């Protein structure tokens, strides 16, 4: 599938309209060719169960209008989007697990209709985080990088020899469904013992509650668990240890398979700091034993909340490296 317009030359200086769509928030930015964010806005993803696909689309359009107007309605070089999966790729028909209103929603096509003549590119949101971190973040200057998001789910994207790896259907980098414990908890994907089943925030909360962690509230998340771990609650500490160990095991396997230099981890749970990264490092050093694999570095993402938007912009600005679909 090709874009309706030739690639916009970088020298033109035109900005990209970058969009990041997840189950918690929808964010949009006007990103300049060097990666600077000129305008930014975000809203909570509407959770109203009565909201249909078109209602959600109108909400997104209003956000794009607002950020475009704030930037003085520039002529864009293109539109880059990171969206929660799964999706058909590169067609960009999205069915985000955490956004039930969209099932097979033709996001790329609708954005093309809204921005006629411009390239519009849609990729997985965790892939965009990996791309952003490789372009301008923790993986800058490295050729072989795994970018990860650890929050409600566990996602990832893979850059090898300096280019984004898409795989046959755009799904390469799905480290959340690498098996870390064949006898482990069931996973939403239908499998068992996936990294995501163990280390996702809700999975950790469920495990901690079974082990006797109580907060007196129903709506607790992995962020609350991390806060309790910082206060020294032993079950909360053990839960983060469990997640860190699972991450370390999965990263050891990925490093052996792909000869990685850097793994950059973002998402809410990554903010737990040493409580997560220490057990991760310990498991990684236990299981990554080949000489080349021992050299991998695991670090927090450097661009924070904006990794995904910067990566979405790079789908347009740096298409030679990050957009293999034509
Ligand atoms: Zn799975």
CATH level-1 class of the largest domain: Alpha Beta
Output the number of helix runs: 10
Strand arrangement, major sheet: 3-2-1-4-8
- Global morphology: globular
Instruction: Provide the list of bound ligands, each named once.
Output: zinc ion
- CATH homologous superfamily grouping of the largest domain: ATPase, nucleotide binding domain
Major β-sheet, in short? 5 strands, mixed
Helix content: 25-40%
Percentage of β-strand residues: 15-25%
Uncertain segments are 1-11
Name the CATH architecture of the largest domain.
2-Layer Sandwich
Let me know the average pLDDT. 93
Q: How large, in whole angstroms, is the Cα Rg? A: 19 Å
How many angstroms separate the termini? 6 Å
Task: Count structural domains.
Answer: 2
Name the descriptors:
326 residues, alpha/beta, 5-stranded mixed beta sheet, 13 strands, globular, disordered N terminus, binds zinc ion
Overall description:
The chain is of the alpha/beta class. The protein folds into two domains: 16-125 and 306-322, Nucleotidyltransferase, domain 5 (2-Layer Sandwich), CATH 3.30.420.40; 138-301, Nucleotidyltransferase, domain 5, CATH 3.30.420. Helix content is 36%, strand content 19%. It is built from ten helices and 13 strands. It has helices spanning 53-70, 107-114, 125-136, 195-199, 201-210, 222-230, 234-258, 274-287, 307-317, 319-322, and strands at residues 16-21, 25-31, 37-44, 78-83, 87-88, 93-94, 105-106, 120-124, 145-150, 154-160, 163-164, 262-266, 297-300. The strands form three sheets. A five-stranded mixed sheet has the order 3-2-1-4-8, sandwiched between helices. A five-stranded mixed sheet has the order 11-10-9-12-13. Helix 7 packs across helix 8. The longest helix has 25 residues, at 234-258. Bound molecules: zinc ion. The site of zinc ion (ZN) has 7 residues, from helix 4.
